[in-house]
Write a structure and sequence with these properties.
single chain, globular
Length: 674
């Protein structure tokens, strides 16, 4: 791949597979491809039927979903990742590209996943806590196949973490210090995780009930032209301004991310258009790639679709989806505001132009041509904000997509396109489904061992020790030990999220860290929804945090830039995402639905956050009215933190301290003009 030409569709697909193991499907022959396609479409139809009209109990729905996920994982993903262009292998021990052992594994995985839901409820209740041999055997099969399916589809990191937790559950008596527990037998361990407290728990439940439907909706919405509508409207609205293609990338990625929820897929989809355009007007390749990657990671935090974690949050907190979406709105806008400020300042610093009128689509023509594509999104939002359940909203949004697709005059959907969309939507959920099942193992161990509060206690104790040290120093004694303890607890959790997220999908990181640190947040008195969003945001940040900034590396492949330099720049551009969680912990009013909300507190917090993020953008870009010296950049960066801490006193102090820097900038601007 070179930086001097646009990448072909095959090269983009290979790039996505390289950085996103969830899309690294094995090549197969036509017969096996048809078998898999039928299974995928049947999976979609089953979920739509159960969500809209079905009567199966929760355990059966979860079990069928898990059976599809594990069975298809062994058919879709090979033992080793293959190239997208590689032909299907032909040998005596495989059928049309899939070896017989994987076919046997797929059948056994389906049987084991369905075994528990098919046991009569009275019989299952009688055997609770006293499993027979077959219960233990089938639970062991599900455990092993879940770990292997996750390894194939998302990589080795999460299964390895799950395996460590398995060993901890059994050999807990040998654990160090406060983590020690009595340990359990293998039968007791399987009994604990092979049920609603483990593999069939909240994570796989959210996948079966909500996430699957919204992923299918995102695929269908893209197929009927909603994505193109977003990209064209973003170009018409922002393309003419200084550094226009970068601002188009931000707007388009925000819109696309709102129906996608996948950082890497969003990067490759919109980046194939926006990155070459950014380079064309003069942005350095690494900056162009970083802008697209940072904007694309916002998809998981942008309503209304967001990522899988949003729906798991609904079940964890037992609150309506509309409350989660409302809470996510302004933090997401602050993320994009921070990127927008930095690309604007970079454009001014480099003297970059916007796009010419003949390079831009006409907004009126775009709306006239694609307006019907917005109808399913309106249906989705109306259903959610009228109080309907997420699965109800998802089903009727999918139906709206189908109706619009067959009625719209241009690029009308055909039965084959609908079939393919159903198959692609289901296929896109397999990897996150294996991750959810794998996380169920970890959550089950935490529940069995009671280690959540132990780890929370360790975090609090460490933060308290650091707080005691700093509060004893005269220069820091203005803040009490409790304030320092909260700050250091948040920093420790944030670091854990970023480290964990370096090799684990966002949703898995979120569930694990919430389970592990929930006790710490509870002790600190942080509201549950605030704690969940804090962990969620830092899990997402890992996609643009070196050394494993996968979205940034994918963008670097399109831009032809140095991956590590692109990752560092992406982290700089996404600094707002790293600061916003601290803002809403100290002032939950930013989340709209947290306790103690007032419009005054919200306004002060939002204004302060925007000022602080804007000043950080100035410090990192090194430009405002004129270039800043290194000393000025450090000064502005330090002052910006006074705006991040919400309150009129700190904001007033920040404004006063900014006056010298502003006077220096005015003098430098005047000197440049002379």
């Amino acid at each position: 791949m070179t930086a001097d030409r646009e990448l072909t569709a095959e090269e983009l697909a290979e790039l996505e597979r390289k950085f996103d193991p969830e899309t690294a499907f094995r090549p197969t022959g036509q017969t096996m491809a048809k078998i898999i396609s039928v299974a995928l479409v049947s999976m979609t139809l089953y979920h739509i039927y159960q969500a809209g009209f079905g009567t199966a109990n929760e355990l059966m729905r979860y079990g069928v979903h898990l059976a599809y996920v594990l069975g298809l994982a062994f058919l879709l993903f090979s033992w080793r990742r293959a190239s997208v262009s590689a032909p299907a292998p032909k040998n005596w021990y495989s059928f049309d590209g899939v070896n017989f052992l994987d076919i046997i594994f797929a059948v056994l995985a389906v049987a084991a996943a369905l075994y528990l839901p098919l046991i009569p409820l009275e019989e299952a209740a009688a055997r609770a806590g006293n499993p027979n041999f077959m219960d233990t055997f089938m639970g062991s099969v599900v455990l092993l196949f879940t770990l292997e399916a996750a390894r194939r589809s998302i990589g080795p990191t999460l299964p390895l973490i799950a395996l460590i937790f398995v060993l901890y559950a059994i050999f807990g008596r040998y654990a160090p210090g406060p983590l020690i527990h009595a340990g359990v037998s293998w039968e007791g361990f399987i009994d604990g995780i092979y049920g609603s407290q483990g593999i069939y728990g909240i994570a796989i439940g959210a996948m079966a009930k909500y996430v699957f439907l919204f992923v299918v909706f995102g695929v269908l919405a893209t197929r009927i032209g909603l994505g193109q509508l977003f990209i064209d409207l973003a170009s018409a609205a922002a393309g003419r301004y200084s550094g226009g293609p970068a601002k188009v990338a931000i707007c388009a990625s925000a819109f696309m991310g709102s129906i996608s929820g996948s950082s890497i897929a969003n990067t490759v989809t919109t980046g194939s258009l926006t990155i070459p355009a950014m380079k064309k007007i003069g942005y350095p390749p690494h900056f162009a790639g970083a802008t697209e990657a940072t904007a694309s990671t916002g998809g998981q935090i942008t309503p209304p679709v967001m990522g899988a974690a949003a729906f798991i949050m609904v079940d964890y907190l037992n609150i309506p989806l509309r409350d989660v979406l409302a809470a996510a709105l302004f933090p997401a806008l602050l993320h994009y505001f921070g990127i927008f400020i930095m690309v604007h300042l970079e454009a001014k610093k480099l003297g970059l132009r916007g796009l010419n009128a003949d390079e831009l689509p006409k907004a009126f023509l775009v709306i006239r041509e694609h307006w019907m594509a917005a109808i399913p999104l309106i249906v989705l939002l109306y259903a959610i904000f009228s109080g309907r359940t997420p699965d109800y909203a998802g089903v009727y949004a999918i139906i709206a997509c189908i109706v619009v697709g067959f009625l719209k005059p241009k690029d009308r959907m055909t039965p084959q396109v609908l079939w393919d969309a159903f198959a692609v939507g289901a296929r896109s959920t397999i990897a996150i489904g294996t991750a959810a099942a794998c996380v169920g193992i970890i959550v089950g161990v935490i529940t069995l061992s009671g280690s959540g509060f132990r780890i929370g206690g360790i975090v609090i104790q460490t933060a308290n020790d650091l707080g005691s040290f700093f509060s004893a120093l005269p220069v820091f004694s203005y803040f009490g030990i409790q304030q320092w303890t909260l700050l250091f607890s948040l920093i420790l959790v944030a670091i854990a999220c970023i480290v964990m997220g370096a090799g684990v999908p966002t949703t898995a990181t979120y569930i694990i860290l919430v389970s592990v640190t929930g006790g710490a947040f509870q002790i600190l008195g942080v509201e549950p929804i605030v704690a969940h969003f804090f962990v969620f945001y830092y899990g997402v940040l890992a996609d643009i945090t070196p050394p494993v900034a996968l979205a940034a590396y994918a963008a670097a492949g399109i831009a032809g830039s140095n991956p590590f330099k692109t990752g560092n720049t992406a982290f700089m551009l996404g600094i707002a995402k790293a600061l916003v969680p601290f803002v809403f912990v100290y002032s939950p009013a930013l989340l709209l639905v947290a306790g103690g909300f007032t419009w005054w507190a919200f306004t002060v917090t939002l204004a302060g956050a925007m000022m602080g993020i804007g000043l950080l953008g100035v410090a990192f870009s090194g430009y405002f009215l004129a270039p800043l010296s290194k000393l000025e950049r450090w000064y502005v960066a330090l002052v910006s933190f006074l705006f991040i801490a919400p309150g009129l006193t700190t904001m007033g102090a920040g404004l006063v301290l900014l006056i010298p820097a502003l006077l220096l900038q005015l003098r430098a601007r005047k000197a440049e003009a002379a």
